[in-house]
Amino acid sequence: MRLRPFSPKQRRVMRWWCDxxxxxxxxxxxxxxxxxxxxxxxMGLSFVCWAMSRFDGRSFALCGKTIASLRxxxxxxxxxxxxxxxxxxQEKRSExxxxxxxxxxxxxxxxxxxxxxxxxxxxQGATLAGVLLDEVALMPRSFVEQAMARCSVEGSRIWCNxxxxxxxxxxxxxxxxxxQARSALYLHFTMxxxxxxxxxIRRRYERQYTGTFYRRFVLGEWCAAQGLxxxxxxxxxxxxxxxxxxxxxxxxxxxxxxSNPCSMGLWGLRDGVWYRxxxxxxxxxxxxxxxxxxxxxxxxxxxxxxxxxxxxxxDPSAASFIAAxxxxxxxxxxxxxxxxxxxxxxxxxxxxxxxxICDTCADCLRELALxxxxxxxxxxxxxxxxxxxxxxxxxxALGKPEGAGMTAVAVEx
Length: 413
What we know:
6-stranded mixed β-sheet; 15 helices; alpha/beta
């Protein structure tokens, strides 16, 4: 693997812990900023080089929101570089462990996922000489603080990186705004700090995001969500008629409701683009009559119209309805209900043209024009959000293997 020269800010990350560095007195480094700004690789390389030059026979932690994302974002990029530097890296996937050896030293690097509040138990009791927290703003506070508390070995240090979230996020308020008081070196990255990013790729990322997410992921600002969520969406630019001819695959997405509206979207795949070609929307409060699970199954049958459905992605809280769908012979996938990541992915797919709302879907188009952030909160307003939820369920399910789960690891004490 051939590395490009590092930018000045990346070089500062690489050597902040060195005895000759002007930053050597800090205990923590925090790097935030734009996407693709060159934070991740230099942070990981700096962390391992520091660990291997200062310790022998110690345990360290590499942490991400999930172990799968950690392997994809950090480990796969890092290992070829470490091997090129002459370090011997043994990956024990069943143990979520990297053993790294070099110049007579050997250290253990445990891979850990900070997915939810229960994840703190995975790291509790460990004794660590250092921890790297990749995408720290996506992890629960309990996990992050437990990981930091485990760094009790003399000389231990902490690495943190993330893209910005909202200005009231606990990590921004407790660590970035208080960096000096916490003996933390804070470095803000922009796309200019990544010498490997070409102008064409940079322009693509600038086109990919809009509104709040543009400010966060392109400009690198910790800004509040406000206004319309899909503020770029204009019917004249994005809405198309239903394509003529057969589709390659069919899927359905459902936001289930009894007193609240129930929204279903029928999606067809053609040449790499998913089209929302038809929908069903029933608002019980407005109609004055609630419908049963079986009536909704019948409505789905009518929407599907005998087409071969690959999968039905459903609101995960709709247990009785999911059972009714399975009894009716549908292949059901419980939706991922991570709202903010789902909105980001949906915006990306809409802007890139990989999903298209057809002019037959009046309720989805109506909600797109009304779907907005709740004032002062990192959440959508709970009106006009039912077709938006079923669309979000659909986009987060695209490309995700069925039955993906979580692996728990034990850390040597």
